[in-house]
Amino acid sequence: MTREINATTRRGALRTPAGGAVGAATLPLWARYGQAQSSEPIRIGFQVHRTGIGAAYGRWYDRTTEAAVRLINDEGGINGRKVEIVAEDDGTDPKRGAEVVEKFATQHGCDIGYGTLFSHVVIGSAPRAGELKLPYFVVSEGHHVASGMLNRYTLQPGITDVKSQVRAMAPYITANLGKKVTMIFPDYGFGYDHRDNLGPAIEASGGEVIAQIAIPPSETSFTGISPRFRAKPRCSITSWSAPRC
């Protein structure tokens, strides 16, 4: 008796027999070419911040992606299959990010999608990846992936999340830099993770967060921040850089 495979799950796709041509036709795009010796390229949708507030990061993500794919293909690809990158600019915008993910799955025939750094774009894009069952690899450090806020198709490989980072850093801050802290954080998901997790970690280490100041992502200067301090802190912490004390 042959067990029927559920083609809508990752586990079901991985169990598909090598000769199951009929079953393979019903699989999502990312799972249709599972045999190592397939001549089909591995198509990777690259959600890149080419414009918007993340453009400076996107430029280097773009260059390193091109260099990595060139190296992989020069060495024979992955299991004999070449890697093909399909890049789309998400404008560092959540709505546009979701549209890019949809294009990867429905227009470009990508096996997987990857990007993106800015957490508000991840949060805006990941639900669509889950609906389309497109594995979506992100490099955001936001805690939203590790906490289970998104879905099982959104993966955050090889990087720590903000909650883990601030818990590790708080004892050093209070022991070496100061016990009264003013937080300056970007006004979106990545910054909110700092806001919500650093305070309790500082308190547990014997310190106090005396002010939290959210900065719009488009802000280019910090000159107007100092007058907003409720009291002169021993240390100011930003989500973008090292502590300033």
Overview of this structure, please?
The protein has 245 residues and is an alpha/beta fold. It is built from eight helices and eight strands; from the N terminus they run H-H-E-H-E-H-E-H-E-H-E-H-E-H-E-E. The protein folds into two domains: 21-155, Rossmann fold, CATH 3.40.50.2300; 162-238, 3-Layer(aba) Sandwich (Rossmann fold). The protein has helices at residues 10-14, 21-25, 55-74, 94-106, 119-132, 143-146, 162-176, 189-204, and strands at 42-48, 83-89, 112-114, 136-137, 154-155, 180-186, 208-215, 235-238. The strands form two sheets. A five-stranded parallel β-sheet has the order 2-1-3-4-5, sandwiched between helices. The chain is elongated, with a radius of gyration of 22 Å.
Explain the layout of strands and helices.
Elements: H1 10-14, H2 21-25, E1 42-48, H3 55-74, E2 83-89, H4 94-106, E3 112-114, H5 119-132, E4 136-137, H6 143-146, E5 154-155, H7 162-176, E6 180-186, H8 189-204, E7 208-215, E8 235-238
Parallel strand pairs: 1-2, 1-3, 3-4, 4-5, 6-7, 6-8
